[in-house]
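Recall the central idea of this unit: under ordinary conditions, the amino acid sequence of a chain determines the structure it adopts. In this exercise we apply that idea directly, starting from the sequence alone.
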Amino acid sequence: MADTGLEMIAAPAVNGERESHPAESPVTVLAKEDALSGRLQIRSSGSVLGTFSGQIECEGDLMIGPDAHVEADIRAARVTIAGYVRGNVVAPARLKITSSGRLEGDARVGALVVQEGGVHHGVIRVHPEGIPEGGDQSVIEARPRTIAPSANNPGHPVDRVKKFWGEFF
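Accordingly, the structure predicted from this sequence is:
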């Protein structure tokens, strides 16, 4: 598979002249009918409305449209999923899954919004204080603190189940 880099597409002309918005950067769009595979690097914000597979890196906001089919690992400041995404997502600012959105994969985000009807299969880790460095690696879970068993706290979860079922037999 060839490595494809797509940077920016300029905004369309208005009345023969290009409209100037210094605060807004042009938006990269993969149209509904388009299909692309490889590595997509977007220097500002972008939208994917068609089919994409590979890897997406976006420095701004990334919108996955309602008819989009994306099989890629995604890294963007803010990600909005209104279509289908299979892959892992890293969004230091926010991940939003709309009512028509579906994410199949893990996500590490600064904030999470899931609208009613939005679907997610995988693990989401929310880091409001910021995603820790080395964040693409799995988080090693700390061992639970051990507390001495007592009548009210049997200790190990298996012991709790035995105690519960023991009351019936």
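Helices lie at 157-166.
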